Amino acid sequence: MTLLPQELIRLKRDGHALPPEAIEAFIAGLTEDRVTEGQAAAFAMAVFFRGLSLPERVALTRAMTRSGTVLTWDLPGPVLDKHSTGGVGDTVSLPLAPMVAACGGYVPMISGRGLGHTGGTLDKLDSVPGYTTAPDLDLFRCVTREAGCAVIGQTPDLAPADRRLYAIRDVTGTVESLDLITASILSKKLAAGLQGLVMDVKAGSGAFMARTEEARGLAESLVTVANGAGLPTRALLTDMDQPLASAAGNAVEVAYALDYLAGRRREPRFHAVTLALGAEMLVLGGLSPDTIEATARLEEALTSGRAAEVFARMTAALGGPADLIEHPERHLPRAPVIRPVHAPEAGRVTSIATRDVGVAVIGLGGGRTRPQDAIDHAVGLTGLAGVGDEVGPERPLAWVHARSEAEAARAEAAIVAAYSIGGHAAAERQVILERVG
After folding, report:
1. Is the pLDDT of residue 209 over 70?
2. In this protein, which residues make up the domain named Pyrimidine nucleoside phosphorylase C-terminal (predicted)?
3. Average pLDDT of 352-364?
4. DSSP strand pairing (390-391 vs 347-352)
5. Interior angle at CA 265, CA 198 and CA 240, nearest 5
6. Which residues form the catalytic set?
7. Of 52, 126, 228, 291, most Cβ neighbours within 10 A?
């Protein structure tokens, strides 16, 4: 059944189920520029309000997967990946891919750019001089085989329909759609030819799905659709009621990840999530019998330096500096204005409006308000205080990295407003909330 784009939009707007062949035709039109940006935005909004049934969700995912090349691999180990639904200070992908590779997995990680208030792995990697985030498929295959992992963006060949819809969702208020998130994530992962996938689904004030029940629904959707499409998948629900790392931005998060790999800094919450996701990947790929042994293997890959070596090989193979881990200060951009943000009064951090922290980074120029916007990779926040931390004259809420004093002042006001200070903090949530699948 072939429908004009406007007819398909009208059907979904009015709450009707869409035939699989109509979804296939619409996605083909999106890929071939026969569907306009306005029509794609209207479709996204209709889906946002009306939702998709499971068969529609599967049909959309498959259509987006088949909009380009679907990779196959011939490697001596399992092909694995992880994906996060996004948060603030969530730079887990950068150390996790080489950690799993150091344990015998192969990780062809196709990542995205920032969506809404969350940072994107590709925007972070774009702050590394020379690093090719969009290699051709031959180079992608070669680096994955030789280094064990390659963290890149969507090439023109892989799920091109998703790339176009992804940018439209970012600026049309439709990022949070469970159906569109499911299809977007899984179309890229299915196109990458994976043998196992672990999802990090965030819940909390800095997540797209703020309530745990919503996050659980997304996790179940992802696991159900992925397994139904033949991709073994598990999901962890993790806490995003505060930034995962103490850095939020692009270059500042790369620096944080490099410090983590090198052992210069390993904060407990970030470390716990990284190990938990990596352990699930190793078990899913048959590289460890259980998560206890898998966690020990990942710890050893870090402490021995093997994970850092894998990251260095990947970075150099994709055009980045060979000494990036040892000397990040030589290569990563640095903002001209760096100043502390002090709380209006001394006390303990009782809660954080984490989404507002991410929005503050966008306000500095570290994210987009339009698809064509350029990103300032140097700006961001470091030293972010966590829930329960004592703040005062000696311990600021954060450090702002800005392009100008005026932008720093605006970000400072936003951060002060995002933090609640009191005498006693509520009990901190566990960082790993649930396991699905």
Report:
1. yes
2. 348-422
3. 95
4. antiparallel
5. 45
6. 81-84, 121, 169, 184, 188-189
7. 52
Compute the average pLDDT of residues 397-419.
98
Query: Strands 233-239 and 196-203: what pairing?
Result: parallel
| Superfamily, domain 333-422 | Pyrimidine nucleoside phosphorylase-like, C-terminal domain (3.90.1170.30)
Q: What confidence tens digit (pLDDT) does each residue in 359-379 have? A: 999 999 998 766 667 899 999
Closest to 385 (Cα-Cα) out of 350, 411, 422, 355: 350
For position 433, what pLDDT does the model report? 96
pTM of the model: 0.89
Specify the CATH number of the domain 80-328.
3.40.1030.10
For residue 39 the two structure tokens come to 């029509």
Residue type, 413: A
Which CATH number fits the domain 5-51, given the four candidates 1.20.970.10, 3.40.50.1010, 1.10.4100.10, 2.160.10.10?
1.20.970.10
Give the separation between CA 290 and CA 309, rounded to whole angstroms: 25
What's the DSSP call for residue 81?
Answer: E
Instruction: Tokens for 417, please give them.
Output: 């407003």
What single-letter amino acid sits at 259?
D
Distance between CA atoms of 129 and 315, rounded to whole angstroms? 10
How is the beta sheet containing 432-436 ordered, strand by strand?
80-84, 196-203, 233-239, 432-436
